[in-house]
Amino acid sequence: MSEQSVNEIDKKEPIPSPSLELDAELVLEPIPEQPQDPTKASIEERLPEQIDLADPELYFNRELSHLQFNARVLEQAMDENHPILNRLMFLCIFSSNMDEFFEIRVAGLKSQLEYSREKNGPDGMHPKKVLSLISEHAHKLVRRQYRILNDIILPKLANENVKFIRRTVWNEKQAAWVKRYFRDNVLPIISPIGLDPAHPFPRLANKTFNFVVELEGRDAFGRENGLAIVPAPSSLPRLVKLPDDVCEGGDNLVFLSSIIHAHADQLFPGMTVKGCFQFRLTRNADLEVDSDDIGVDLAGALRTELQSRHYGSSVRLEIAENCPLHIVDSLLKQFELEQQDLYRIDGPVNLSRLMAVLELVDRPDLMYPPFSPGLPRKLASSGGLFEAIRQRDYLLMHPFESFSPVIDLLSEAAKDPSVVAIRQTLYRTGSRSPIANALVEAARNGKEVTVVIELRARFDEAENLALASRLQDAGAIVVYGVVRHKTHAKMILIVRREGAELTRYVHLGTGNYHAGNARLYTDYSFMTSDKEIGDDVHRVFQQLTGMSKELKVKKLLHAPFTLRDRLLDMINREAENALKGEPSRIIIKVNSLTEQKLIQSLYKASQAGVKIDLIVRGICTLRPGIKGISSNIRVRSIIGRFLEHTRVYYFFNDRNPQVYLSSADGMDRNLNNRIEVAFPLQDYKQTRRVKKELEYYLADNTQSWILQSDGSYQLSKPRKGEYRSAQRALLSELADNTR
């Protein structure tokens, strides 16, 4: 699709970026490289034939690239094209992303050092060096985050009459109301802990909200220790809305931290409170279920491990910036942390809890307006989904197109007396979701329901255990996939008796079976009754639920068996065509790209002259723009209103384009250590459609960040009158209509 045709879809002018000092730190610095041998020429100075494609100079560090993705999310809070409450949401998302980054990635690096299991990645950087660089860059990001909150977001919200009232400016009525709130709601359930030999330092759970209080004086028992810990009860809201009768209009909110801080003296009667400082401890939250120790009960092993998740080793301490040094040093010693693990905070220690603003404040004018997802007319008709899918394949792109046909397909199957069996994989869906409800109904209606639940979906383990129990209680067969390989494929197989035959109906997707995520994530859904695809999905389920040798599949690509090798074959074919002077092209859209053999294959294709466009939302360790190696590779990241989640693999294939959609990213874990599938689009119109939608992303010049050869990202800046947004174009083309 030409740039002109994209312009015709979306001509809205962007709001100019704010001219602020904050812009000086727009993105992270270039990713540092491993120091090279000074006697060895740099990668740019060597001839292509002198370069080993495994050379560490050709790869960015995975963890630092991950941090850069978080930086791009943070920058959305600076983008005035987003409504102000959505900008606040991006600050919250950044905070949540950073929590997980420390809980999993930083914790993993620390564990390597603790147990002397250091392992350099393809970039050659030692874990100790990586941790040092993470600390340097993460501190910059956190400082920037709070400057954006305090200097931009909160003042702009105040201008819209949404105010966060600090305790230093409470009027008499507000102070009296807060005092009553503390007396009635906080004081009865809070448990201050004075520190002395009989009261050791409490065991604080991961990411809980706490205060360290400095005291002066002796208590009734003559104790004089000087410090106390006050855990904030998790049952209390972190934000409290003041009633209208104590305010002068608008929405007025106070932080729980302000309420506790203002009344800390009531927690220690007769003592003098010299200081009260909020802090939060982040711990290692990565579950380590040893495959060799699981025995016959994965669910039981996981339940046991979940109990200890909240008390892993310490990895980060966040604390109020005005906390005295001697208290900070005491906490660092208590948690066995170093100075580089300390983050002084100018505001609430857990910004992700500011998401509560969306529930407390009814201001739809400060958010993106809602939209109605589009729906193909034949799927919306009353003829039934089985009839529609029997006639043709359907491809939907969420959230621009409705997720309801996926839910309706299962609901219809649950009630249809002709349906005899349903099989489905579930990774993240929720135990009370519409999908779960339909499967429960189907099982209770006597269908043969088999569900493969991946219990180890990170941070959804407890929810998936509850879902498994609910399905089993309804009579469904529940299995947990393969012990050493997470089941990440997204598949539904419905077997329906039609006359003397059994017909298979299939749904395959790039995203999770979660209706809420389907309104926030971009994903493809594919529905078909194609016999060979139905046979392939049946065989994959056979492997998951039973035990067998590798089963041949005809149309699907199946990890860990055929997916990576077939992708390499298709990349190599494009390279061969380019060497013969034939047209060639590769477009890949994934969340992350780190798998070394896949990257090396792309380097070879670039050397052969293949034009390669990579749309990589998050981590990318491939280094583009190196003369003679990757000069034909362009990498961009799209960050916008919706989370980009589609995985697409496009190959020109000598003028007969091939498109595969998949749940798999270009990562080692996806291609080699998970159960994944990629499915082909066989209809030319659907292939052409996906290519057009990829071109929207390649033409985007407003939410597109271009990866440079030094590892930095540059935000595209449109010329006047040339504003192009992929997500806005897709909303315009696919949503709000029935086709």
UniProtKB/TrEMBL annotation:
Gene3D superfamilies: Endonuclease Chain A (3.30.870.10), Polyphosphate kinase middle domain (3.30.1840.10), Polyphosphate kinase N-terminal domain (1.20.58.310). It comes from the Bacteria. Residues 173-356 form the Polyphosphate kinase middle domain. Its EC number is 2.7.4.1. Mg(2+) binds at R428, R458. Its cofactor is Mg(2+). ATP binds at N97, Y521, R617, H645. It catalyses: [phosphate](n) + ATP = [phosphate](n+1) + ADP. The active site is at H488 (phosphohistidine intermediate). InterPro entries: PP_kinase (IPR003414), PP_kinase_C_1 (IPR041108), PP_kinase_middle (IPR024953), PP_kinase_middle_dom_sf (IPR036830), PPK_C_dom2 (IPR025200), PPK_N_dom (IPR025198), PPK_N_dom_sf (IPR036832). CDD domains: PLDc_PaPPK1_C2_like. GO terms for cellular component: polyphosphate kinase complex. Residues 385-549, 556-727 form the Polyphosphate kinase C-terminal domain. GO terms for biological process: polyphosphate biosynthetic process. Coiled coil: none annotated. One of its GO terms (molecular function) is metal ion binding. An intermediate of this reaction is the autophosphorylated ppk in which a phosphate is covalently linked to a histidine residue through a N-P bond. Keywords: ATP-binding, Kinase, Magnesium, Metal-binding, Nucleotide-binding, Phosphoprotein, Transferase. HAMAP family: Polyphosphate_kinase. Belongs to the polyphosphate kinase 1 (PPK1) family. Catalyzes the reversible transfer of the terminal phosphate of ATP to form a long-chain polyphosphate (polyP). This is Polyphosphate kinase. The gene is ppk1.
